[in-house]
Design brief:
Helix content is 16%, strand content 42%. The chain contains one helix and four strands; from the N terminus they run H-E-E-E-E. The protein has a four-stranded antiparallel sheet with strand order 3-2-1-4. The two termini are 33 Å apart. With 91 residues, it is an alpha+beta fold. It has one domain.
Length: 91
């Protein structure tokens, strides 16, 4: 940890709390696969958080990032688990 780490975290938390957007992080857990239905059941767990939505820069566009996509920056401590590719954000 650097000398300014703790003060900068406090400033970032204050700024996100004041100017951030309220969103819902939806953790998606997949249960067993149903052969007859052809799909897997999902268990959903929602967490209300605040984050900052920003546009991607043109140099960030590629196969995974398309024009119109946005990125959401949140404080890691606001989430109890690390987000996965199947999880969702509700804005």
């Amino acid at each position: 940890m650097g000398f300014l780490d703790a003060p900068m975290r406090a400033v970032a938390k204050t700024m996100v709390g004041k100017f951030g957007t309220s969103v819902t992080f939806r953790l998606v857990s997949r249960a067993g696969y149903d052969v007859h239905a052809g799909s897997a059941a999902e268990t959903l767990a929602d967490t209300a958080i605040k984050g900052v939505l920003v546009e991607f820069n043109s140099y960030e566009l590629g196969d995974d990032v398309k024009l119109g996509d946005r990125k959401l920056m949140v404080a890691a401590k606001d989430l109890s688990v690390a987000p996965g590719t199947g999880d969702r954000i509700l804005i």
